[in-house]
Amino acid sequence: MARVVNSYGRNHLETFNLEEQESLSRKEFNQLKELAWVEQLFNVILLGPPGVGKTHLAVGLGLEAIQKGYKVSFISMGGIGSHLKNAGHNAEIANQDKKD
């Protein structure tokens, strides 16, 4: 998250313009901000077209979590795809090793 914070360090939740968001209500925003989903061990995936505030919201939530003592990881959808592909490949190798 350190690299992301350096690039997007001003993306705090206080500067997130909720009025421009059609798909996120104030209630949902406040629920995300409370971080109950972190305490319940859930992940948040933000999807949408470019320019709607996904990165701003993600970094803001990450900064909020860091301030409350949590460790934070930030990954793009491309990164998730790569991790899943590698995990599947590693599982195939492990299964093949068990057969040999």
Describe the structure.
The chain is built from five helices and no strands. The protein starts with a helix and ends with a helix. Helices cover 57% and strands 0% of the residues. With 100 residues, it is mainly α.
Q: What series of H and E elements makes up the topology?
A: HHHHH
End-to-end distance: 40 Å
Which regions have little confidence, pLDDT < 50, spanning 5+ residues? none
- Overall mean pLDDT score? 82
Q: Helix- and strand-based class? A: mainly alpha
Helix content: 55-70%
Roughly how many Å is the radius of gyration?
17 Å
Q: What is the number of helices? A: 5
β-strand number: 0
The global form is: elongated
Largest sheet: none
**Strand proportion:** under 5%
Topology at a glance:
Elements: H1 2-8, H2 26-34, H3 36-39, H4 54-67, H5 77-99
What's the gist of this structure?
The chain is mainly α and 100 residues long. Helices cover 57% and strands 0% of the residues. It contains 5 helices and no strands.
Defining traits:
100 residues, mainly alpha, 5 helices, 0% strand, elongated
